[in-house]
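Example record for the data management plan.
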Amino acid sequence: MKLHQLPKTKKRVQRIGRSGKRGSYSGRGVKGQKSRSGRRLRPAERDLILRFPKQRGFANAPKSEVILVLNLSELSTALKNLAAGKAPFELNHDVLRATGLIRKSHDGVVKILGTGEIAFPMNVKGLKASASAKAKIKKAGGSVS
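Corresponding structural encoding:
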């Protein structure tokens, strides 16, 4: 037996949409995307994406500045080596940047809260402080201005 003598196994595929026994529309209906040749239906993912709400418009920058908050407990652990003597040292933005408590690029408001205790005197300048923090700093021998 030779290759050209083998029985044909591939069945001829019916090409739909060319009239014939099924009528002029060949089972596809009259109009619409499904009746056209070369149709390609949209994937389901596309429909899901279209259903999600879109963010539109321009968002303004926040009107209020973000206040960076530091507790007395954080200050007491980070500033132990600065408070070696009995004399109070000055606490300001530069000292906080040098010790790594705030980022070097931070120029906003820093507020000290009264959570924790402080055992050494310090003079706070250019920083905000809560009422409880002011009381604890004054009790330790420092001042807030």
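Summary line stored alongside the record: Residues 97 and 105 are 9 Å apart (CA to CA).
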